[in-house]
Write a structure and sequence with these properties.
Blueprint: H1 2-24, E1 26-30, E2 44-49, E3 54-59, E4 83-86, E5 92-93, E6 106-109, E7 115-116, E8 129-132, E9 139-140, E10 148-150, E11 155-158, E12 171-172, E13 185-187, E14 194-195, E15 208-210, E16 217-218, E17 231-234, E18 240-241, E19 254-257, E20 276-279, H2 284-289, E21 299-301, E22 309-313, E23 319-325, E24 333-339, E25 343-350, E26 355-357, E27 361-364, E28 370-378, E29 390-395, E30 398-403, E31 407-413, E32 418-424, E33 429-433, E34 438-444, E35 447-453
Parallel strand pairs: 3-4, 5-7, 6-8, 11-12, 12-14, 13-15, 14-16, 16-18, 17-19, 19-20, 20-21, 22-28
Antiparallel strand pairs: 1-2, 2-3, 9-10, 10-11, 23-24, 24-27, 25-26, 25-28, 29-30, 30-33, 31-32, 31-34, 34-35
Length: 454
C-alpha cells in the first residue's frame, strides 16, 4: 500500500526535473535601446535555445549597449553560443553585444544595421564565414570575401580564417584578425596603405605574409605573437612601424626592407626576435645612422639589390662602349669608349645630355640605376687648327669667336646638330649661344675647334 502512495510523488519529482531542465535550455528577455524619453526596451527581444546553442534577436530598432561591467544577458552562455540570428530590421549591434562568442562559426549583419558598437564583434575568433545583407547602408561583404567592410572608406573591419581580401580595400582596421588562430596566409591587396593596431596580433598559424607595395603604416602590435612568420619583406613606401608591431615573432629569421629611407620604428618594434635584415644599397648609410636601426648587429647591405648599369653609343658605327667593372655599393663602375678608325670620342653623357666625363676611361660611383652614353663623332677629312686664324673663348653659355677676316661661324653640339650660326666681322668677337652645358664644336671658314661649356 505504501508503494502505491510513493508513485505520485515520483511523478511529481520527474515533472519538476523536466521543467527545470526545460528552463535551463532556454532563456529570453528584452535588449532594445531606450532612445530619448522612450524608456521602452521591448523593441528587441532575445531568446537563447541551449539545445541548439542558438541566440536569436528579433524586432526592429537599435540594440542596447553593454560593457564589461554590465554584460549582455546572454553572456553566461558565451562559450556555448554557436549560432546568432538577427532580424533584418535591427538597426544597430550594441557595444559588447557579441563579445567573446569564440565558438560562433558564422556572422551575418542584417540589412538595416547602420552602427556597430565598441567591442561588439571582438573575440569572434572561431568564425569561418561573414556575410552582410544586400542593400545594407553602411557595410558590405563584397565578392563573398568573408569579411566585414565599411563601404564608404573601403576599410576591412573584421576578418576570419577564410577571408579573401578584396582588391579594392584601402586599409585594415584595428583588431580585424585579432587572435584568429586559423589564419595561415595573408596576401594584403596593393591598394592598402594602413594596417591598424593589433590587426593580426595572435595569428599563431600565420606563416605567409605579403605586404602591399603602397603600404605606409604598420601600427602598434599589428603582428605581435605571429610565431610562425619567418620572412618579412617591407615595401619601398613603408614610413612607420609601431610599438611591438612584430614583437614575439619568434620564428622570424629574415627581414628585407625595400625602403631606401629607413622607416621610423620603436625600440620594441622587433622585441624578442632574432633575424638578419637586408637593406637597399642606396640606403645603407642612412640605416646605419638612423635611430634604433643603428643598433641592429645584423644590418647588412642587401645581397638581393643589384645596381643596373647600362652603356650605349650615340652611333654604333663610330665607336664601341664597354663595361669593364659593374658597380655595387662599395665598388666603382668603370666604362671605356673606343672610337673606330676615322672617328673620335667626345664625352660620356647621361640620357638627358649632361656631360659626365670627357675621358674615354671613366670610373665613377653610383647609388641608383643609370645609363651612360658614349658620344663619338666622325673626324673631318681636313682638320686644321682653327686657333691659327681664329680665337675662341667661353663666357657662361656664350662662345665667342674672333676671326681675322669676314666669314661665317657656327656652333654644333656633339651630335652634329647646329645650335647657332651667324656672320662674323674681322677682328670683332662674334657670340654664339650654347643652350646648355656640354661639349660643342665651333666651325669657322671650314675649320673647327672643340670647346666645353660648363
Amino acid at each position: 500500500m505504501k508503494i502505491y502512495k510513493c508513485i505520485p510523488i515520483l511523478w511529481m519529482l520527474l515533472l519538476l526535473a523536466h521543467a527545470q531542465n526545460a528552463l535551463a535550455q532556454s532563456a529570453s528577455g528584452y535588449c532594445g535601446r531606450q532612445v530619448g524619453s522612450n524608456t521602452d526596451s521591448t523593441n528587441l527581444q532575445w531568446n537563447y535555445d541551449a539545445s541548439q546553442h542558438a541566440l536569436t534577436i528579433t524586432g526592429s530598432g537599435p540594440m542596447k549597449d553593454y560593457s564589461l561591467e554590465t554584460q549582455a544577458p546572454w553572456s553566461e552562455w558565451q562559450s556555448d553560443i554557436r549560432v546568432v540570428e538577427m532580424d533584418e530590421h535591427i538597426m544597430s549591434i550594441g557595444s559588447y553585444a557579441l563579445y567573446n562568442l569564440s565558438n560562433l562559426r558564422h556572422l551575418h549583419i542584417p540589412g538595416d544595421v547602420a552602427a556597430i558598437g565598441n567591442y561588439a564583434l571582438r573575440g569572434l575568433t572561431g568564425l569561418d564565414s561573414i556575410s552582410v545583407s544586400n542593400g545594407n547602408p553602411r557595410y558590405d561583404s563584397r565578392e563573398a570575401c568573408n569579411a566585414l567592410i565599411e563601404t564608404s572608406n573601403d576599410m576591412l573591419l573584421l576578418g576570419c580564417s577564410k577571408t579573401r581580401m578584396p582588391a579594392d580595400i584601402r586599409g585594415i582596421e584595428s583588431c580585424a584578425f585579432l587572435n584568429v588562430s586559423g589564419l595561415k596566409e595573408a596576401v594584403i591587396p596593393e591598394g592598402v596603405t594602413y594596417i591598424g593596431t593589433e590587426a593580426f596580433k595572435g595569428c599563431t598559424a600565420l606563416d605567409s605574409l605579403v605586404l602591399p607595395g603602397q603600404l605606409t603604416v604598420i601600427s602598434a602590435y599589428a603582428f605581435q605573437d605571429c610565431g610562425r612568420l619567418d620572412t618579412l619583406v617591407l615595401p619601398e613606401t613603408i614610413d612607420t612601424i609601431g610599438i611591438r608591431a612584430f614583437a614575439k615573432c619568434s620564428g622570424l629569421r629574415y627581414v628585407r626592407s625595400n625602403a631606401v629611407a629607413p622607416p621610423r620604428i620603436h625600440p620594441t618594434t622587433f622585441s624578442n626576435t632574432s633575424f638578419h635584415i637586408d637593406v637597399p644599397c642606396p640606403g645603407i648609410a642612412a640605416y646605419r645612422s638612423a635611430p634604433v636601426w643603428e643598433d641592429f648587429d645584423s644590418l647588412r647591405i642587401s645581397t638581393w639589390y643589384e645596381l643596373v648599369l647600362t652603356t650605349r653609343s650615340n652611333n654604333p658605327a663610330y665607336g664601341m662602349d664597354t663595361i669593364l667593372q659593374r658597380p655595387d655599393c662599395d665598388t666603382a663602375a668603370v666604362v671605356y669608349a673606343e672610337p673606330y678608325e676615322g672617328c673620335e670620342f667626345v664625352a660620356w653623357q647621361d640620357t638627358l645630355g649632361h656631360v659626365l666625363s670627357t675621358d674615354s676611361l671613366y670610373e665613377f660611383y653610383v647609388d641608383e640605376d643609370i645609363t651612360v652614353v658614349a658620344v663619338f663623332r666622325k673626324i673631318p677629312e681636313a682638320l686644321d687648327d682653327v686657333s691659327v686664324r681664329t680665337t675662341v673663348w667661353v663666357n657662361g653659355h656664350e662662345v665667342f669667336v674672333l676671326t681675322d677676316r669676314d666669314t661665317r661661324v657656327a656652333l654644333f653640339d656633339i651630335l652634329g646638330r647646329m645650335v647657332d650660326a651667324r656672320p662674323a666681322t674681322a677682328d670683332y668677337a662674334t657670340p654664339l649661344h650654347a643652350p646648355a652645358a656640354g661639349v660643342y664644336v665651333v666651325v669657322a671658314d671650314g675649320h673647327q675647334k672643340k670647346v666645353f661649356v660648363p
